[in-house]
Amino acid sequence: MECPRCHAQIPGTAHFCPECGADRRTGDWARRRSFAAKPDEPVASFALVSSIMPLGAGQRPQTYRIALTIALVVALVAAIFGAMPIAVLVAAFAVPIVYVVYMYDVNLWEDEPLPVTGLAFALTGVLALVWTVVWTLLRGPVSFATPSFDGSGSAAPALGTFLLVAVLVPVVGEAIRQLGPVLLARRPQFDDLMDGLTFGVISGVAYATFDTLVRHWALLTGGLQDADPGLWVSLIFLEGFVKPLLMGTATGLACAEFSGLGRGYDGFTPRYLRAVVLAVAANVAYQAGTYLFSFLGSATLGVLLSILWGLLVLAILVLRLRVVLHTGLMEAALEHAARTAGVGPEGELAFCTRCEMPLQPGAAFCAACGTAVAATTNVHRPKVPSGAGAAAAPRAGEETVALPRPAGGATATDDPGRTGHDGEEQA
């Protein structure tokens, strides 16, 4: 049978189209019930590992889950016995180390591992260190059970401190987290959506690492603390695991939209700006919640509520991340199908101007969104030179669309408002 999405021939025993990945048995051609990176999971799922580590999800997902679990257990056990220097160090570096190992494990950017790690992790880490020192000095000391928690122990929160912690810090922090990934994603070899996503996640967890080290420096250098398992365990789980995953997911979303769909990176488009606003809003919500919960009177209760609030924000981000990731993987499948069908490995692909998915050669409709190609392409009749024969003119009632771009030239269908995409389509 023929796939209605990419028009490839599907074997009778196949569950999914081998070219575009469409689900043949259920008719769910967009595969909303089957996540592209891990088909046994739906797109709308809270599975964290397959969301932030998609390239390893189908091979060794348990490896990364086990690594994160071991790090979590070590940090929590140290916190139970009051060994906060060990607990803070393990919690601060656990998620970044696992993610860097993941990057090398799946051979991402094996030709340039140091520039990638440097810009995505080290640059963000240094800037985060400086910024966290600055804003904690502006905030001033706190008289709370945990010296680096944002509460002041007073009867009510202060407006100035709230605006600093819940508004200024998330805005500047997100700008810092975007810097390295955007510089990397502008390079031709790193302009894929998956690259932008990965750069954003590692930048987010790097920021969280140095933020934790600065804000909890008193615990890191204070030696053993009085036994208070409820407080210390909750604090370590919040600062060492909930916070980096939330920041990494939010920044990864925005950087993925910067890379965008189709050929080349999309750049500073309205879609990217909306994603940055979403990332900032998520961090504002998280920071505001942790600040306000610290005034409940009980340190343990405040941290526990902060954990629940952070997990709620993280869950929303993960759902959105999976949609973006799934869309990108399905686009890659359509691009592969288009090249296999005749465009070739070096040929120029045409992209739908509505959804930015690759168009199949000779297609009258976009296989992803169903939009008619003629409705999204500048249709024109070619000029017939004076004296040309009748064979040069189109037949009556026939329209011709823009021809492929000649070498060194441009066509009337080029869209100057798009970055890295071609608006032409063959007749």
TrEMBL record:
It comes from the Bacteria. Keywords: Membrane, Transmembrane, Transmembrane helix. Residues 384-427 are annotated as: Disordered. It holds the Pfam family Zn_Ribbon_1. The chain crosses the membrane at residues 86-104, 116-138, 158-176, 197-218, 230-254, 275-293, 299-319. Residues 415-427 have a biased composition (Basic and acidic residues). The keyword Hydrolase does not apply. The keyword Ribosomal protein does not apply. Residues 3-22 form the Zinc-ribbon domain. This is Zinc-ribbon domain-containing protein. It comes from Microlunatus spumicola.
